[in-house]
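Chapter summary example: a protein plus flavin-adenine dinucleotide.
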Amino acid sequence: QVPLKPGRSLMDWIRLTKSGKDLTGLKGRLIEVTEEELAKHNKKEDCWICIRGFVYNVTPYMEYHPGGEDELMKAAGTDGTDLFDQVHRWVNYESMLKECLVGRMAVKPIAAPKEISSTLSEEKKQLNGVLPEKKVLGASVKDITPSYDWFQTDSLITIVIYTKQKDMNAELVTVDCQDKQLRGEIIVDDHSYLVEVDLGHAVQEDLAVNIAEKVGKVEIILKKKDNIHWKMLGRPLGSHNTFIKRTDRGLFYRKCKLVSKTEVTHDTKLFCLMLPKSTHLQIPTGQHVYLKQIIAGTEVVKPYTPVLPFLPLDFKEPSRSAGAHIYLMIKIYSCGLFTQALDHLQIGDYISVSNPEGNFKKSQVQTLEDLFLLAAGTGFTPMVKLLNFALTEISCLRTVKLIFFNKTEDDILWRNQLEQLALKDERFEVQFILSQPTKDWVGKQGKISSSLLSEFVKRSTKDSKVLICICGPTPFTEQGVQYLKDLGYSQEEIHAFTA
Ligand code: FAD
Ligand code: NAD
């Protein structure tokens, strides 16, 4: 991120795109762009970039780009899709850059999709979810490629996905069914398998997902609306039956209802969102989701990390949050574009929520003895589920220490709950450190520093297995990681939460 000049915020950009100004230089015309043509537009004052087959004139956007002009120029006159995906796959550039659209790259035609029929045919291989040869990337991928099949009773349709994974679990499966469009995504390591079908007939709103964890079989069970015999499951949609890298799969959103909004501190609220009945979605510990809202006619997307409704003292996640609800602890900034719009949502309003993402793996915690959590401000959010998971599931765990950095006492999130937890569980300890305390604060003060860290981050025994998780404003996280490395902690012993 680079500091932007005054008048170059996202809101300013949205205003410019609405001003009616010709941002492409083509007076609203869309053209077909060849590679040779694209390559000619490679200067700051004439810069075209191709993202996923669409070409944008990004020259007017240069000064508004949060990553800076140099970052954009890396892709000048070329296909910037990979570069874009590495940095901010989740940013909705289609909406953000729609006024900069020059046109499409010349593309090859795509074969029309075929119906998925339950009768035997030459397409049998495809029916049963075995990828046709051309989509298989290589022998090793073929070995692990999931497949699917389906069957029916009078009242039910069951889609069975054979993941070939021994440790399949509910967090790796996301299913949505809206307006007869079924989408089931299964995460297999860093790959994603997708079943995406326009169903042949209507189904009821609620669906069920059964997982046979040991054999890696996933069943999606749909209830027929009418008890008729289905001749086919439906029509495959664009990415049906594909197995690709997880990061190459576009984000999918479903609309969730805001059911409650409660104050946590003077500027932070706990939002409770309800998933549709026709969605199966569980957000793994350490992962975040993206929220999407239309602000001044432009789709804006920001990441947030789900928490629990409260810190459970007896470590049993309340059933209310077991799937149907997502809790988000969000700080409302007085000039924040997204959080201001969020704060204006009324109970009963809807907001789009994406599938989960993130590179934290529970296996990082599995054999831990000491866990240190360094959180600043809302950087506390990923620590909530992590704390709960570590204290509940990790039997070898000896200590969990949360070192929580805030500006003032009033900013401390869930202070009471944290103090109660520390009293209840002797493995857990919390330390609050304030950067702008009032004069009656008797606790620690300051910002993250090498001396603070060497005072608070200590192994319980000389070679105990340790993990230090860190999350907060980018400079906080970057400085923290550097201090920890200087103190001798290895890369594997540090996890930084970032986008
Ligand atoms: P913005 O409009 O982006 O601005 C926020 C504030 O910063 C404003 O006061 C603005 O004036 C100021 N500001 C903006 N740009 C600059 C600049 N360049 N220099 C100085 N000041 C600036 N937040 C949560 O509250 N809860 C979460 O659970 C959470 N999870 C996250 C997970 C991830 C993976 C990441 C990356 C971020 C997470 N965030 C979380 C932060 C969240 O995504 C947003 O960044 C935040 O809500 C602010 O959005 P906004 O549009 O309201 O603010
Ligand atoms: P804040 O401004 O209230 O600051 C909280 C504390 O952070 C300060 O008291 C200070 O100790 C430290 N801090 C702030 N700026 C610092 C700097 N420049 N250098 C060193 N230390 C600094 O914090 P906030 O407004 O609650 O912001 C929380 C941040 O955490 C946001 O930037 C948000 O994007 C980020 N966040 C990231 C994730 C994630 O990546 N997974 C999740 C949640 C929040």
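Key point: The chain has twelve helices and 29 strands.
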